[in-house]
Amino acid sequence: MTRILGIDPGFERLGIAILEKNKSDKKETVLFSECFKTSAKLEFNERLVLIGDEVKKIIKKYKPEILSIETLFLNTNQKTVMHVAEARGVVIYESACSGLKIFEASPPQIKIATTGYGKASKEQVMKMVKILVDLDKNKTSDDELDAIAIALTAFACMRG
Amino acid sequence: MTRILGIDPGFERLGIAILEKNKSDKKETVLFSECFKTSAKLEFNERLVLIGDEVKKIIKKYKPEILSIETLFLNTNQKTVMHVAEARGVVIYESACSGLKIFEASPPQIKIATTGYGKASKEQVMKMVKILVDLDKNKTSDDELDAIAIALTAFACMRG
Questions:
Q1: Is the ipTM of this structure higher than 0.85?
Q2: Beta partners for B18?
Q3: Min CA distance, B137 vs chain A (Å)?
Q4: For residue A76, what pLDDT is reported?
Q5: Which end of chain B offers a freer environment for a tag, N or C, measured as fewer CB atoms within 10 Å?
Q6: Taking CB atoms and an 8 Å cutoff, what residues of chain A touch B46?
Q7: What's the pLDDT score for residue A89?
Q8: For residue A5, which phi and psi values (nearest 5 degrees)?
Q9: A86–B45 C-beta distance less than 8 A
Q10: How far apart are CA B127 and CA B121, in angstroms?
Q11: What are the angstrom distances between the C-alpha of A19 and each of A120, A145, B55, B64?
Q12: Which of residues 59-118 of A touch B (CB under 8 A)?
């Protein structure tokens, strides 16, 4: 049995998912997923504390062995990407402090793991995630689907 | 009495300083400074854990009320700056978790606070730091001098 924490890094919205797979299972099971939001009314450091606390709480509850987190690339919004990197650092830090192994999933890896095609669109990835796992929620946000895709990527790379 | 933790963020080398000032003091006193290094042989997440542990240890020992940390701008080395941002996130996170207030010092603020001139060179800042505070060490590294300058900036901005 392997349990993976998938994280789509962010500081306004953080996609979080816990996936599990037993050797006999055909599919990965989504044990938990959420889009964790922090208010823009808070100072940035308060938002970092909330993010770290949430990650700690979920690790304590679900005891995953691996963190799978998306790699980060520079985009046009310099300020946002720096804050995302800072939040990403906190997630990796709390996970490593709790003894999790860290797997970094690049966008092409995520696309190949979910759709088989390294240049798939975001919509294609989202669509495949809904086929690859059973989602019991009526509405799963894009951030949650991203977190699930990121966790699935770690499972796929472990098989290889 | 105010005690400030100054941090020059980095993951290979982290400049750390603790400065104190009483109302009756003319000068700030450097209680502690170091250049904390992490080995490139370690995985990045292990280095983040060491950085967080060191910051926690120093906060516990010296009990500063404020973290003063340099703001970060993009430079040519995208990969390095992302890792510095991740380490910076961990420093802010651990400081906020310990109840410190966070002060972010921009390069022009640091230059004005130490030299009175917003376009001063790095060498001019280093030179002025050595005049502004008494350093009992024979050799204080540039990273430590930076951390001291960053702490001095928070003191200067609090006066204003």
A1: yes
A2: B5, B32
A3: 32
A4: 60
A5: C
A6: 96
A7: 98
A8: -95, 115
A9: no
A10: 10
A11: 23, 12, 33, 41
A12: 72-74, 78, 82, 85-90, 92-93, 95-97, 102
Which residues of B are less than 8 Å from A72 in CB distance?
82
Pairing state of beta strands A101-105 and A66-70? parallel
- At B3-27, the pLDDT tens digits run 999 999 999 999 999 999 988 888 9
Q: Which residues, 6+ apart, have CB-to-CB distance to B84 below 8 Å?
A: B9, B10, B11, B72
Of B60, B72, B87, B50, nearest in space to B5 by CA: B60
Residue B56 to residues A76, A107, B101, B150, Cα–Cα distance (Å): 34, 34, 15, 19
In this prediction the pTM is 0.94
Task: Summarize the confidence of residues A34-50 as an average pLDDT.
Answer: 97
Of B97, B109, B118, the residue nearest B155 (C-alpha): B109
**CA B59/CA B92 separation, integer angstroms:** 12
Residues of B marked active site are found at 8, 70, 143
